[in-house]
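Predict structure. Chain length: 72.
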Amino acid sequence: MLELLRPGGLTMPNWFLLEDAIRAEPRRDWSEFARPDWRDATLEYAKRLAREPRLFVSWCLSPPLAIAVKQR
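Prediction complete.
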């Protein structure tokens, strides 16, 4: 995704998975939709986005929303 995004480009990932990964009791089991290790994979993806120097990432959990803007 990052290589296709132009500087200043905006993306809004789906953070319903992140919200449920953080909850002690997720609202649903995403194993069939995502994959069996959805919780760990989702948390790792969020951490990778936050560390990416080419992106400015901001998110909130209520409502679950993330916005990433590619830096110039």
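Summary: The longest strand covers residues 55-61.
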